[in-house]
């Protein structure tokens, strides 16, 4: 069973990203141990 959650937001007027001079990407991972 795999679960994926995607959220979006804007960075308007926030540094070089808001000025369209660059891009950013973020990844959050939650891991669970299934060993006995």
TrEMBL record:
Residues 2-31 form the 2-C-methyl-D-erythritol 2,4-cyclodiphosphate synthase domain. GO terms for biological process: terpenoid biosynthetic process. InterPro entries: MECDP_synthase, MECDP_synthase_sf. GO terms for molecular function: 2-C-methyl-D-erythritol 2,4-cyclodiphosphate synthase activity. Coiled coil: none annotated. Pfam families: YgbB. Gene3D superfamilies: 2-C-methyl-D-erythritol 2,4-cyclodiphosphate synthase. This is 2-C-methyl-D-erythritol 2,4-cyclodiphosphate synthase domain-containing protein. It comes from marine sediment metagenome.
């Amino acid at each position: 069973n795999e679960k994926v959650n995607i959220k979006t937001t804007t960075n308007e007027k926030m540094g070089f990203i808001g000025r369209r001079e660059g891009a950013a990407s973020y990844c959050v991972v939650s891991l669970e141990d299934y060993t006995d």
